[in-house]
Each structure stands twice: as C-alpha cells, then as structure tokens.
Design a protein that fits this description.
The protein is α+β, with helices and mostly antiparallel strands. The chain has nine helices and four strands, in the order ααααααααβββαβ. It folds into two domains: about 1-205, Alpha-lytic protease prodomain-like (Up-down Bundle), CATH 1.20.1510; about 215-305, Cation efflux protein, cytoplasmic domain (Alpha-Beta Plaits). Helix 2 (about 10-35) runs antiparallel to helix 3 (about 40-65). The longest helix has 30 residues, at about 145-175.
C-alpha cells in the first residue's frame, strides 16, 4: 500500500488537480450562468483560484525536486513554501472580490433561476474536489509536501464552501428570501479568507527555518539517548546544542557530540557515522551535521555578544 502512495508523487497529483480545477470551473460557471446566483459565482471564483494555485504549486514542486547545484548547495526544497504563500494570497484576493460582488446583491436581491440544475452541478464539482483532496492529503503526509497539503486543504475548503452555498441557496429557494444568496457568498468569502491567512502563516514559518515537528524531534532525542553513555558517574558520550529545522520535504539537525579527549580521530569518526546512520533511519530524509568535541570543551552560541 505504501508503494501506491509513493507512486502518487506531488507532481502527478498537482497535475491531476489542474485537470479537476478546469472541470469544476466549467461546472460551476455553468451553474452560475443558468441561475444568476452570486453565491454560485463566488464558488466558481474559488475554483479559478484552485486552478492558479495548482499550476503554481506544480511549478514549485518541480523546482523543489531539483538536485543541489553550485548556486543552491542545500537544494531547492524551500520552493514549496512559495507555493503555499502564493496560494494564500490568491485565496485572500478571491475572498475580497467575492465580498465586493456580493454587497450589491445584498442591497438589491435578484431572482434566481433553475436552482435545481445549478445546485446539481455544484454537488458534482464538490464530489470531484473532495475525492482528490482526500488522496492529496494522504499523499502529502507520505511525501512531507507542504505544497501538496496546501492544495489539499484548499480543496477541502472548496468542498465546505460548496456545501454552504447549496444549503444557503436551498433555503433561499424554499423561503423566497433572495438576500440569503448574498449572505451565503459573504460567508464563503470570510471562510476562504481565513484559510488563506492560515496558509500565509505556515509559509512564513517555513521560510524562517521553523523547528521540526514534535514527533520528529522526539525520534531524534530517542536516538541520541541510545548513544549517550556514562562511566563512574561521568558522561563519556553526551550531546548538546541540538538544533533542528525543516525546509520543504527535508529535515535537518545540527548538534555537538562530546567524547573523551583520549579517543583517536578514527574512533570518534566511526561513532559519529553510527549516530548519523541511526538518525537517518529513525527520520527518513533527515540530514545531520555533527561536530566532534572533547568532553571537557564547551561551545557557547548563546553569548549576548554573538547576537549583536
């Protein structure tokens, strides 16, 4: 089963997202055209954002997969954060546009036409988005892809948006309260705006070298604890200054490993290799940088003078 999820690469899924976005734009635009509902118009506008986001995400994921080169010795993994940030910006712009279009209808409600066909097309679009979003979210955890997760969560937001539109328009149809159409559209805008702000926040945290997830840090600490050793009440192998960060799919850890000064360089290097291999086995995709130090030597990186 894991092999299936590994074959569903971010590139393939984002390419599928482009195709689904084109289909949903067609269905939702047709639904708006036959009903003249501003609520369905807002739903169609979000699908246009889905298309732009999927295309940009596909570009960034392809860029992130490039190997390290002379100008980018640490690779291109952070490109995915630009995808998430771009998607967040587009969502917020779409939300503002929906609110602007809805205010006029709120003061001057218009009759709605053929809501049965319009709502049916909206439900069909939601089914397509929901199925793809579920697959993409599962795959994003396998590949640790923020771009894939961002697109999946956006699609889930689109599903809930469409559900709200369907319920609101059904109520407007049943009660004759045409102003509900505009209220639903504004509610949609506020919801997707919140999601856009969340994506922007996550993108900014990634670009600022956020620490790895708590479960990843716990796995790193467990490995180091397995190598730490005491003799006669004193530490002969210990680790400190453990710092982590993440960049797209890649995880990094930097640390100091202290050992007896009497050890040969070859013995110390052999132990470091064992620690590195154990860390990479515990956390796939991890890159470890380990500085060797004698037990009686300390390095101080938190000196206030170094922070000026």
């Amino acid at each position: 089963m894991n092999a299936v999820w590994h074959r569903l690469t971010p590139q393939r899924l984002l390419a599928a997202s482009v195709g689904v976005a084109l289909a949903t734009i067609l269905f939702k635009t047709l639904a708006w055209w036959i009903t003249d509902s501003v609520g369905l118009l807002s739903d169609a506008m979000e699908s246009v954002v889905n298309l732009a986001s999927a295309m940009f995400g596909l570009w960034m994921v392809t860029l992130a997969a490039r190997p390290a080169d002379e100008e980018h010795p640490y690779g291109h993994h952070k490109a995915e954060y630009f995808s998430s940030g771009f998607e967040g910006i587009l969502i917020i712009i779409a939300a503002l546009g929906i609110i602007w279009a809805s205010l006029g209808r709120l003061w001057d409600p218009q009759p709605l036409q053929r809501l049965d066909w319009g709502l049916g097309l909206s439900v069909l679009s939601s089914a397509l988005n929901g199925g793809l979003a579920w697959v993409m979210l599962r795959a994003s955890r396998v590949h640790r892809s923020l771009a894939l997760e961002a697109d999946a969560r956006h699609l889930f937001t689109d599903v809930w948006t469409s559900a709200g539109v369907v319920v609101g328009l059904a109520l407007a149809w049943a009660t004759g309260w045409l102003w509900l159409d505009a209220v639903v559209a504004i509610g949609v805008a506020l919801n997707i705006g919140r999601e856009g702000a969340h994506l922007l926040w996550r993108s900014s945290q990634g670009l600022m070298d956020q620490a790895v997830e708590p479960e990843v840090r716990a796995a790193i600490d467990d490995v180091l604890a397995g190598f730490a050793h005491q003799r006669n009440g004193s530490d002969i192998i210990r680790f400190d200054h453990v710092h982590t960060r993440k960049a797209g799919q890649r995880r990094y850890v930097d640390l100091h490993m202290h050992m007896p000064a009497s050890w040969t360089l070859g013995r110390a290097a052999a132990l470091r290799t064992s620690v590195e291999q154990a860390l990479m086995s515990a956390v796939p995709g991890l890159r470890a940088t380990i500085q060797l130090l004698p037990s009686d030597v300390e390095s101080y990186f938190d000196d206030p003078r170094d922070l000026k």
